[in-house]
Design a protein that fits this description.
- It is elongated, with a radius of gyration of 16 Å.
- 13% of the residues lie in helices and 21% in strands.
- 4% of the residues are buried.
- It contains one helix and three strands; from the N terminus they run E-E-E-H.
- The protein has one domain.
Amino acid sequence: MIIRGDQYHDLEEIIFIVIADFILFPDKSEYKSKHTIRDEDTNEHDLRDFYFIFTELPKFPKTKEGYLENIVESGSISLGMRMNPVKRS
């Protein structure tokens, strides 16, 4: 956390995690995508420690915890089971 007068480079990493039970990015085939913030005029990446991770549950390919590769997949499956998951075809 920073206080008034501090610089953004003093700020710790901030990750926004979105778990959606619907398709956000229909043109992407992967269930997880990472997005950063760029300056619209210069395309500079000033806020390097701010990023967004989107998990789209309908695209999630795994259903058995034994096949999980990392904690993000584990959390996505746990949350997907607790929420009303979208029916997969």
